[in-house]
Amino acid sequence: MRTLVLALLSTVALAGPPPAPAPRNTTAVIKQPRVLSPFPTDAQCQALGPVMTPIPFGPGETLEFDIDALGARAGTMTMQTMPIRDGVLPLEVAVETNTFFSKVRRVKGIAKSELSAKTLRPSRYFEDAHENEVHRVADVTFKKNKTAKLVSTIDGRTWTEDMRWGNDVSDVAGAIHLLRAIPMKEGQQLCFDVYGIRRIWRVWGTVLPREHVSMPVGEFESWHLAGEAAPLNLPNARREMHVWISDDARRLPLAALGMIDFGAVRATMKAFSRPGEEGNRAENKGNIKW
Fold first, then answer.
1. Which phi and psi angles does 252 have, rounded to 5°?
2. What pLDDT is recorded for position 105?
3. Mind listing the pLDDT tens digit for each residue in 49-84?
4. 234, 239, 249: which is closest to 205 by C-alpha?
5. In sequence order, what E strands does 85-238 have?
6. % pLDDT > 90, the chain
7. Is pLDDT above 90 for 273?
8. Which end of the chain has fewer CB atoms within 10 angstroms, the N or the C?
9. Which residues pair with 187 in a beta bridge?
């Protein structure tokens, strides 16, 4: 499930059939054998560029997701945007498996990211999680010399490591929010690096044509981002991913679908609330239609 946090939050939501119908074209892509695309070099993986002004979210926003794995409901995830302090926009993400899926893998954890309120790039990322009986803590500082210093603790044993990144970087809590704030157009190529699971991953993909999405939380025109992720030191260890972001002023992350270590996983937004707006919840409002 830590890999799920990487997949989804790096946009990356890194199924057997999920409870509601998945997009037909995405399901086909995941099930078919694929020829690996070329792994982008640093020169090819250029920075994403500046974010929108103003950014499409802010303090007080809460996003809630259902997580499906192996064809069943597996748990929940909540993303919260906290008040800005000293030019830093903090994010908090909480993930917890449900009683059913905890028989397969029991996970409960929280991730915190400190982003620049202007650029949405991270200065620090912190993660505290229990996976079955293992307690894992990661504290990452992003430096200006394109390195990330990791202080990792697993069951009381601590070590440090410096990891390089290329031309642009995020973390698994901040990546989806960074993508929400990047101007998009059909055919646009995206590439950046993401910290997650004690590695730096390269994430790259393409903005596909807009799609209409009918969800329990509303009707949306959305951008479909299709891509891959792989650790910088293991370029053939791929994770395929698909993410849908609403094409409106809110740029909501509607859903993510991808392959992780134990199979296919999907995260679907079930509720959102934003200051000054009427929130919405998914209970008893029907299925998703793509």
1. -75, 135
2. 78
3. 999 999 999 999 999 999 888 778 889 999 999 999
4. 239
5. 88-97, 107-116, 122-131, 134-142, 147-154, 157-164, 169-171, 189-196, 199-215, 218-231
6. 64
7. yes
8. C
9. none
What CA–CA distance (Å, rounded) separates 3 from 140? 17
In what helix (H) or strand (E) does residue 2 lie, and over which residues does it extend?
A: helix 2-9
Residue 47 has pLDDT above 90, yes or no: yes
CA dihedral over 195, 198, 201, 207, signed as positive or negative: negative
Domain count across the chain: 1
Three-state secondary structure call for residue 102: helix
Q: Is residue 190 part of a domain?
A: yes
3-state helix, strand, coil in the chain (%, to 5): 10, 50, 40
- The candidate with the shortest Cα–Cα distance to 269, out of 248, 247, 249, 246, is 246
Higher per-residue pLDDT: 256 or 290: 256
So what's the pLDDT on residue 42? 97
Angle at 116 between CA 164 and CA 82, to 5 degrees: 120
Instruction: Give the closest residue to 264 by CA, choosing from 9, 65, 29.
Output: 29
Could you say which DSSP state residue 101 is in? G
Taking the model in full, what pTM does it have? 0.85
Q: What is the pLDDT of residue 97?
A: 87
Residue 196 lies in a domain: yes
Distance CA 90, CA 79 (A): 11
User: Would you say residue 290 lies in a domain?
Assistant: no
- The CA distances from residue 219 to 250, 251, 288, in Å, are 13, 13, 10
Q: Is the peptide bond before 183 cis (omega within 30 degrees of 0)?
A: no
Domain hosting 157: range is 2-281
Provide mean pLDDT across the span 189-217.
94
Q: Is residue 286 part of a domain?
A: no
Please tell me the distance from the alpha carbon of residue 58 to that of residue 15, in angstroms, as a whole number: 32
Relative to beta strand 189-196, strand 169-171 is: parallel
Between 189 and 37, whose confidence is greater?
189
- Residue (of 160, 175, 162, 163) closest to 200 by Cα position: 163
